[in-house]
Amino acid sequence: MSQQIYIKKDVHFELFEVNLLHADDKQLIQISEEMGLALNLEEMKAIKNYFTQKNRNPTDVELQTLGQTWSEHCFHKTFKGTILTPEGRTIDSLFKTYIAKVTLELNKPWCISVFEDNAGIVQFQDDIAVAAKVETHNHPSAIEPFGGAATGTGGVIRDVLGVWADPIACTDVLGFGPLDYDYNKLPLGIKHPKYVFRGVVAGIGCYGNNMGIPTVNGAIYFDESYVGNVVVYCGCIGTLPIDKYIKKAKPGHHLVLAGGRTGRDGIHGVTFASLELTEKSEEVSRPAVQIANPIEEEKLKRAIIKIRDQKLASSITDLGGGGLSSAVGEAAHKYKCGAKVALEKVPLKYLNIPPWEIYISESQERMLITVPKKNLQTVLEIFASEDVEATDIGTLTAEQTLRLTYDETVVAKVDMDFLFSPPKSLKRAEWKQVEYTEPTFSEPKDLTSILVDLLSSPNIASKESVIRTYDHEVKGNTVLKPLCGIHGGPSDAAVIKPLDNSNRGLVISCGINPQYGKIDAYWMAASNIDEAIRNNIAVGGRRIALLDNFVWGSPEKPDRLGSLVKACEACYKYAKGFETPFISGKDSLYNESPLGPVTPTLLITAIGIIPDVRKTVSMDLKSSGDFVYLVGQTYLELGGSEYYRRLGYIGCSVPVVRLNEAKRTMDKVSNAIESGYVRACHDLSEGGLAVSAAEMAFSGGLGMDISLTRFPQSVPITRNDFVLFSESNSRFLVEVPEKAKEDFEAIMKGANYACIGRVTKEKCLLIRGLNGEPVIEADLDVLRDAWKKLFGG
Amino acid sequence: MDHNNIKACIVRVGGTNCDAETKRSFEELNVKAEVLHLNEIVKSNNLLEFDILVFPGGFSFGDYVRAGAILAKSFSAKLNRRLKDFVEEGKPILGICNGFQVLVEAGLLPAFDGISKYPEAALATNLPIGFRCRWVYLKHENLGNCVFTKKIPKGKVLRMPIAHAEGRFMFPKDNEGSCLEKLVDNDQLVFRYCDEQGRGTGGKYPYNPNGSYYSIAGICNPEGTVFGLMPHPERAFYGWQLPDWTRGEKPSEFGDGRLIFESVVEHVASKI
Q1: What domain count does chain B have?
Q2: Mutate which: A474, A487, A497, A624, vs B, most B CBs within 10 A
Q3: How much is the ipTM here?
Q4: Is A190 strand, coil or helix?
Q5: Splitting chain A (793 residues) into consecutive groups of 10 residues, what average pLDDT does each group show?
Q6: CATH assignment of the domain containing B49
Q7: Smallest Cβ distance to A210: which of B59, B246, B250?
Q8: How many domains does the structure of chain A reveal?
Q9: Smallest Cβ distance to A471: which of B133, B240, B251?
Q10: Cα Rg of chain B, angstroms
Q11: What ranges make up the beta strands (E) of A213-253?
Q12: CB within 8 Å: A298 and B15
């Protein structure tokens, strides 16, 4: 640090004045970089202007606070900023223009709190609500897979606690590079996918298992672009009594910091997340990864639920990205207050942490609640009864200023207004055409062996060996588990029965297909929404709410931003069309490494309701003699399919979503399940009809004899392989008992459907091709073994 | 039957996490069940007011040192005499999963010659290694000594899930044969892992899910009043908790786990 810029203050602790007033543009950037602020020139200039008006230099604490508050991670500058499109259109906030607009326009009465709090809240039953949140923790997991994933889970659980909800289930969707990736191709500073995979899986399991929250739903996806940019989505769902959702903090209320102690772990986590990963990330950003202690959070949870039930506090927020700086700032900002905090009161893991680090540390397992004076003692006693440390560190103030002191020296004094109005970002988007073409090749002779290959390919193969390391049954409320049937079949969604006195269930599913994102981000987004919803419908879910989580490359690069805009456009159109509001979401941008950008990846999580869990339908075949129906039309849509990938192609005929057709199909399947005509139901996704049929058969230990001759198709498809492996959206395979045939067909009237065969007791999958001759004929054992062999279990 | 006069105490500390569903299982049988933090039990000194003591599943104190070790020691240190009195009065104690680990660490199981100062057995790291959540088959081996399985016929095969990383039951290697003999002679052997037909596992995964010696899944003390098992009966209480209930038209009303709660509640009811 050069002397003229950083001036050490004459106090008994570490405090610097930063000479911003005399800094030129070059020095402003230098300061931003040296202090790890991740602010751009325009933002630094805005800060300089502010302090010029104040006629003084900022302290290091003030600059760090601004760096945190204005970070992409905390402020979502890209989603809230202005975007210019190539045709000259101006998008004022992607978030408002597309995502929030869906929810606003649908205006569902059961949406209680959307986007404005730590988690989205919807009504569940009577006076009980459900809160849901999904987060990403990609950057930390790339540096330290176990710690990154564990604290990702811990963080999202605190988000749910942060709306006074009791966490009841976790989800996790992970993206890794190929596990057999060539070590020699690995750039310096990037860890091998196998190491990352093991660490991340262990981290997720460690946190959820230790806290006693079942991990019930998820997916694992493999893609070359994830070698340098691991993708870790952590989700959590909780329940809360609606009248306990208290948000009424006032000036004078005390700020109580509870939970783990504050240390040097997790410094600059959010600014780190707003930068690209480089080979130096390991060295420079190691402190950005926090240390997990799930037992601390378990205790914290108990205390918070007690405080909630007695309505002793006036508001709550978690300490996540940005640590105290973000929690205090948001708590004050939300209730139009200022705040004063005495930083020396914050309990530390070790001595001599300077004030700026105390204020921005992202040490885990901490929550901030505001408490009226009259309840303060009771609240502190409740924390003590659970062996949780809690400290009164300050108060909310009527004056709208953030005022931080350390041993009575003022170390920061910033107007709240300024703190929460960073300069609006202006970014440029461009549409980049993808150069993929549709491959031409003749139909392979042996489709059975292709099916066997597909079943043992990484994105389709059973993840049982991972799933079983997560406790998916703790709390004893998991009605439909991730593995179902006799042989651990892949459930489309999880069903939880959260209330002891009610049979109403919660249905949790997801949709993700980055392979489509390589071809077209718009249709990927549409497909993922369709997939998340159809997975939910397949087990009996309805009244669905969605969560959107974007993992994208740097928005500074116009092509990445362009595909992000396209994906958002699709989010608006299809979520609106399906009448499924977004209730929460998060974006993780800047996923770039020396190997390039991450494949644009959107996770859609769907939270549905099933009125009676005893009507849940699983995907395993149940009874020989039953009819098998294919519902939904099949198109020539193999672009981005697992079949093409198996043959070494990508193609361009990515599956699209035909809204009216899709809605009709889903409504009718939902209706048939509710009426009790459906014994098994499975959605068609990666690997298409052939893979779904195989999964249903070997999971139930029963055979299937189906034929492609009576296939619902719009334009005639003339090749068996295309019919078998097309990944068209909005399709289901349904098992219907003989006695329900007529009733089922009466419901299906008007939809595209066909009875394509029967369940058999022979342990064999038989699919007859377009000319009636068998094209696939395989023993269930062979199929199941293929499906299980890659990851074991 | 109304068992409102029976009181069950479910102990918890930081990291305990199966207390709610364990409480629910007792409440379904009309027992008055309370979840109490160890701090509260120590403070109100009321352990002996309860008829049943339960150490539920979870990761007490993070399972640092060894699974269950810290809770075992802190419970023994803080409530040593009360705990002894509880056992000597013949009041039942149940340990599920982490609770089983606690009972073994506390010397309450197998307790060949009364409560032992040092653990006489261990629940070691699973083989194959790692945390595993899955349903297993259990064969009931007890001849009638254990008060927690009185309602279960000998030889009956039950289904329950396990979820643990440290559940490999073992005796000291140098005299495991004689320990086993004692266990069987005293009618302390309660559950062994088996296959769906009740046949021995031959030590094979996944039927023996953790490499337990002699496929031991649950044991009791010589008096039959202290019982620990790795599987979770509270997660097999209702029919809809079974992993494959969707294969039938609708879930059966109850799962096998209920029998354990019923047995002990009836036992206590008969004593009062």
Answers
A1: 1
A2: A474
A3: 0.96
A4: coil
A5: 78 96 95 92 96 97 95 86 94 95 97 93 97 95 94 96 97 97 92 97 95 96 95 98 96 98 80 67 66 93 98 96 93 96 96 94 95 98 96 98 97 96 93 89 97 97 96 97 93 98 98 95 98 98 98 95 97 98 94 92 98 97 98 96 97 96 97 97 97 98 94 80 97 98 97 96 96 96 96 83
A6: 3.40.50.880
A7: B59
A8: 2
A9: B133
A10: 17
A11: 215-222, 231-241
A12: yes
